[in-house]
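Run log, item B.
One chain of 71 residues. Sequence copied directly from the ordering sheet:
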Amino acid sequence: MNKSKNSYKEKNTFIVKLDNRQRDTWQGEVVWADENRTERFRSALELIKLMDEAMNKSAEAASFTDKTSAV
């Protein structure tokens, strides 16, 4: 089955903790629950980028696992 780069095989769980809101955006931390990894963010855009990065890493890892199990 041929999957596009942006299709994700697994679901990911994120916990977003907001510390405050300044200059019309959020600041806080995001926890990637599946990997027990925590990152701080300074804006909503940075939060989205962190989550997208985590999703892409997850998809790449799943793709690598699929390729090695086929060998």
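Observations after the first pass:
- The longest helix spans residues 44-69.
- The first strand starts at residue 14 and ends at 22.
Flagged for discussion on Thursday.
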